[in-house]
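User: Please predict the structure of the protein below. I'd like the answer in structure-token form so I can feed it into my own downstream comparison script.

Assistant: Understood. Taking the following sequence of 720 residues as input:
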Amino acid sequence: MKATLTPERVFAEPGLRVAQPSQFKISSCGQYVSFLQASAVSNSILDLWVFVCATEQRFCLLAASSIAKEAKEDVSALTARERAERERRRQFTQGITEYFWRPNTTSLVACIDGQAYLTDVELSTPSQLTNRNTRQAAFSLSANGQFLSYVRDGDLYYRRINEDLEVEQRVTTDATATLSNGAADFLAAEEMHRFKGHWWSADETLLFFSKVDESRVTVSNRLEVDANGSRSIAQRYPYAGAVNPSVSLWQYSIATGELLELWRDSEEQAYLARVDPCTDGLYIQCQDRLQQTLTVLRKGYAEKKWQTYHVERSTTWINLTDDFTELQGGGHAFTSESSGRRQAILLNRPNAPERLACPTHLNQLLGADTEKIYACGWQDTPLENHLFTIPLDGSAFTRITEDAGWHDFVLNPRQCLFVDRFTNDLTPLKVSLNSAVAKRVEHTLFEEQINANHPYQPFLANHVPSEFGSVLTSEQENLYFRLTPPLSKTGKHPVIVYVYGGPGAQKVRKEWSPLLQQLFAHNGFGVLELDNRGSSNRGRGFEAPIYRAMGSVEVEDQLRGVELLKSVPWADTNNIGIFGHSYGGYMTLMSLCSAPDVFKAGAAVAPVSDWALYDSHYTERYMGLPQEQPDAYRNSGVIAHLHQLESALMLIHGMADDNVLFTHSTLIMAELQKLGKQFELMTYPGAKHSMQETHVSIHRFTAILDFFSRHLQTETNGEN
């Protein structure tokens, strides 16, 4: 009998994938590449490593466990504020979680346990930059590396790197339980993916920061239950249609200590989405409450008034990006979906075209030099991601990466170097330092080879390759899918539709991702994943059908994917299940209610039940205001459809979820009980929305496999 996978083997340490390095950065001189790597103590604790390009030597520059031991701090100890911040970032590791290169030096600043340390590639002993008797968060390094700024107890501080430890400057003094400075608020971090709350000017003379006042935000008194008991949490949660936090932008002068308010939210400019200090002034991106207008404002550092630099409008919504790129010689590069696909445009660029020749769809601008932009995106298929150079004169773009699959990048445009994290469906992760000019690998930084010593080796003989394909929507748009067969194709086997389905995400990509799919395959299930309309990386037209109609076309498209199973010899179309997490949990419930004759069973994890109970920035983007769109909210909510539920249901939720509140599941429970419908329930004390704890993951997937095994009966079981 060949080795088969279990939840314990998939999720418990040591993991089935070798510890993968992350957060690659290239030094400004291009001579070093830094990254975080799992420590020898635990895969969940990260150390700081450096690769020396000249010698191809790599070494651990800073070990988190040794620093924590020296500081007499517990690596795993996190304040509630820090835990919430990491949940927003989906940051599930410990140790060194953030670090910065000081420009034009060989030194770095690393953050661990609420402290910052200065270390150097050429020196052996790190020095502490912050007071060990306090904990800091939201660290930021100034543009030239002269200053380190951070937040403590809701107030903003900074210090010179080379000054005595005890010398620090306090910027704000007005923090309260409902007012904070210099840190991203819930909406900014969770929904805008703006994780910073303060920024340095290019010349390091000014420090800009957001001030967030939550005093008028609705208090949600939720019960947070953990293994040791429960406590009432008065969380200020910005529900759809309700009052948002009040956000303002301030300026602090390093020379004089003067504080000046620069911007305050209003009806027309409800959200401070992005802040981009450039050499010629400060640029900010603002959205209106419905996110149909994006305005870029500019203010010179010596000027008092804002000028409108760029405006974009949409009849649905505008997606935020991190694409605002300053260009040498003046002007900026930006991206826009106004043409239907995300493309590069130029703003205020002398003697240059407004729109540039681009591949089909851009994912992100990565940087620029004097002649061209570096960007990633796709030309032929959205299942791949590649690096392109796009000339500023409007001439033809060039694809830099060649290997078919998914590439992620870290760029040093000054040195024409990039770190390429590459994988495809047949190739585990490879990381290399590449020359964009020569189009070649300069150094291999990491390569996951499944050899005799690899933990996945015992299971490799039973590895089940996935199949990729597409089906058409009613409008003849391709819906791409990934189908993973069961380990044995003998006879008929049930199929699990593994769904997310929500906007801002893409599940089906040419990537090596064996574990979850393989777990189901080894336990006798096929797995179907499909990116429905509304998902990302396909342009505005592909996303727009969900506008004020969530839970409609997404379900329709998933059913089109199920139709293809009728032509798959091993698929038992009488035994189809569905499961997903978050929006995927919502999709599970909407699919069960919409097509009880198709789905025999479903496991809904942390599902949204009522969009009026989710946060404003996310929900209103797609649904409008609940006061103005009551029918859309009712039709898109789960509660109104539960009377149609006929299939077996397992409901799963973390009991400390501060994103999709546990209230969503209690509403579902109450309505199902009122309707007299039976269901299974699994709750996890202390678990947040991500539910990443090892024991929770093992238990959760054991329960899900058991649930589907009981409710999806195969006609004929093949041998493993």
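That's the full token string. The domain at 459-711 is CATH 3.40.50.1820 (Rossmann fold).
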